[in-house]
Amino acid sequence: MTVAEPPAAAAPGARCEGGRTAGGRVAGPPLRVAFCIDNLSASGGTELNAVRTAERLDRRRVAVELVTMQADGPMRERYERAGIPVHHFGAGGSLVGWGAWRGSRARARFFRQRRVDVVHCHDRYSNVFCGLTARAAGVP
């Protein structure tokens, strides 16, 4: 039995078969990702997981913008320090009222205008409000 040799590693950024880079991604502009989270509090693991992930993404490969339903909180400054734009689409004071749904048109317009490639929802409320809006806007 013969063991196949692994393919030789290409230099970072070098194009491989099929127009992909050595890292496997198609060469070209960065992937546009909208991180969605309901609030900017620092009270739980979800909020910290989202900001830590966003801070560590390679900006040459991934362009991240944050969509939130509540405008302010301790994590806002951390996103801004990392150079990640924060966009607030109001919930009308409550995540369970009609105001939260009214922001859906604005979010859908934002996703289309920014030509977002992927909407990544981080919590229950953003799954409902941003996830459904992204689907309606034709964004995975």
The number of helices is 4
Q: Say how many strands there are.
A: 4
What proportion of the residues is helical, as a percent range? 25-40%
> What is the molecular shape?
globular
Terminal Cα span: 44 Å
- The topology string of helices and strands comes to EHEHEHEH
Biggest sheet overview = 4 strands, parallel
Strand order of the largest sheet: 3-2-1-4
Q: How would you characterize this protein structure?
A:
With 140 residues, this protein is of the alpha/beta class. Helix content is 36%, strand content 15%. It contains four helices and four strands, in the order βαβαβαβα. The chain has a four-stranded parallel sheet with strand order 3-2-1-4. α3 packs across α4 (124-137). The longest helix is centred in the C-terminal third of the chain and has 16 residues, at 98-113. The chain is globular.
Descriptive key words:
single chain; 140 residues; alpha/beta; 4-stranded parallel sheet; 4 helices; disordered N terminus
What's the SSE blueprint?
Layout: E1 31-37, H1 45-56, E2 62-68, H2 74-81, E3 86-88, H3 98-113, E4 118-121, H4 124-137
Parallel strand pairs: 1-2, 1-4, 2-3
Concise account of the structure shown:
The protein has 140 residues and is of the alpha/beta class. It is built from four helices and four strands.
